[in-house]
Write a structure and sequence with these properties.
mainly alpha, two-stranded antiparallel ribbon, 17 helices
């Protein structure tokens, strides 16, 4: 039978003695809980059955995942920051309209509390799974791009924005989300935001309230009820694509039929919202995420999977507006796009690839691609956004940042599948894989490499495998009852 290799790569920055493995096993070696063949007297009564069962590994790297809960105050600050980030209450509540820097100061407080708590709790600045290493490399690449930027001041401003708003908060997410309750609270927060956005989007569409492309009837589209992250309909669709699989597997986890209906209803609500954004990238990302869910969940219940897919297709056709098919046709034939955006994006994509190859080491500087673009346009592609602005090494680090958590989740899912366990970890690992794949596809059509979407998502993936492997290690080391 195939078993998982080293599944964790976790090491602290400036590790102290308390963060080192207590045993003398070499780091990275996988140890299995197997019967003691040299001392038969110590064998359990069902030793033969245990020997034939799929082994539960204990990776000594997991010793560096601190089992302490900690960071309670930090998580409270992080949760408040996330509320401000997603909801932007100073826009929704008139009395708070003067507090536009609320997210900045909330983030500063969160970081201050985090660094003190982290040093006291674990004696290092941050854990270092590979995703953290890649994000730090992205930060370094952004810093190195500044002297070579077309406009260094613009690159520096973007670097400060990227560093504080993305990299540092990502470190907080990775180190602070260390319990299932914390993970679920953040996911529930995102689900609440998604419900609010979906309902407002559908109501605006039905009422004919279009906030994008007002000058041309062919380009009129709905926009999010919350600005910044959700202003653009394409970015809004990408957000929904990353959350739909999580809502769907939450429904699978619930035994209560009413709760299943609630979560699946939320998923279908977001699917309807993706459709009325008229986002081609969102559509392709949704298809990719759906195929991942169907392939992985279908291995255990093909009939239910086929029935669910059929229901989803029927629902999709029922809510799709008449002009939606013409919009999707422009994916394959740019001449079918009345707005001309498909051909324009093709030109910009080719231009961003050329700029990436022309400036392969450091790019043209963070946020500086528009100086080399056609009509001051952005890349409309997350991968070439990184490559053109920070260089090919940074683009490779970004791709590893996306692929590595996907690989780890797949290993977790495979191990649980081979053990015939349908636990919460099994379904959540599949849901997060589908979300990551959906992002990877949809972000090919949106310049969102520096936005929050993927950083929260990757942090969820790291948190899930951290919680899982600590629980597995506890099961393997605790004596049988």
């Amino acid at each position: 039978m195939r078993h998982s290799p080293e599944l964790l790569d976790y090491e602290g920055v400036f590790p102290s003695k308390r963060s080192r493995p207590a045993d003398s096993e070499p780091v990275g070696k996988t140890v299995f809980k197997q019967p003691d063949l040299e001392h038969p007297a110590k064998q359990p009564a069902d030793a033969a059955a245990e020997a034939d069962a799929p082994p539960r590994f204990i990776d000594v790297e997991a010793g560096k995942w601190q089992a302490k809960n900690g960071h309670t105050v930090t998580f409270a600050c992080l949760f408040i920051f996330s509320i401000v980030l997603y909801f932007r209450p100073y826009e929704l509540i008139p009395a708070l309209s003067s507090f536009k820097t609320m997210a900045f100061y909330t983030g500063i407080v969160t970081l201050a509390v985090y660094f003190v708590s982290q040093l006291v709790l674990e004696g290092n600045l941050t854990a270092r799974p590979r995703e953290v290493n890649m994000v730090l490399l992205l930060g370094l690449a952004g810093l190195l791009s500044i002297p070579f930027a077309i406009d260094p001041s613009e690159a520096w401003a973007m670097f400060i924005d990227l560093c504080i708003k993305t990299i540092l908060i990502f470190l907080v997410l990775v180190n602070v989300i260390r319990t299932e309750l914390r993970l679920k609270l953040l996911i529930w927060l995102v689900l609440v935001v998604s419900i609010y956005l979906s309902v407002n989007l559908i109501n605006d569409y039905r009422a004919g309230i279009f906030k994008i492309g007002l000058a041309d009837q062919n380009t009129q589209r709905v926009a999010g009820a919350i600005k910044n992250l959700f202003d653009n309909s394409n970015d809004l669709a990408l957000h929904f694509v990353t959350i739909i699989p999580i809502a769907f597997v939450f429904g699978l986890l619930k035994k209560n039929p009413l709760r299943k209906v609630v979560y699946w209803g939320i998923a279908f609500l977001m699917i309807a919202a993706v459709v009325i954004t008229f986002s081609r990238g969102g559509f392709l990302g949704l298809i990719a995420a759906t195929l991942v869910l169907a392939r992985k969940l279908g291995r255990r219940n093909k009939t239910a999977t086929v029935a669910t897919l059929a229901l989803a297709v029927i629902f999709f056709l029922a809510v799709a507006p008449g002009a939606y098919s013409g919009r999707l046709a422009s994916i394959f034939d740019s001449a079918a796009d009345a707005t001309g955006s498909a051909s324009q994006r093709t030109v910009v994509l080719k231009r961003s690839i050329w700029v990436t190859l022309r400036y392969p080491l450091f790019g043209v500087g963070l946020g500086n691609f528009h100086h080399k673009s056609e009509q001051e346009l952005g890349t409309h592609n997350a991968y070439t956004q990184v490559g053109s602005e920070m260089g090919i090494p940074a683009m490779i680090a970004y791709i590893i940042f996306l692929v590595h958590p996907l690989r780890k989740l797949r290993l977790m899912e495979r191990e649980l599948f081979e053990r015939h366990e349908s636990s919460r970890f099994y379904y959540l690992s599949i849901g997060l894989q589908a979300s990551l794949v959906g992002y990877m596809v949809a972000s090919f059509f949106a310049a969102v490499a520096y936005q929050w979407y993927i950083y929260y998502l990757v942090a969820y993936a790291i948190a899930l495998r951290r919680i899982y492997y600590l629980e597995e290690m506890k099961k393997a080391t605790d004596p049988p009852a």
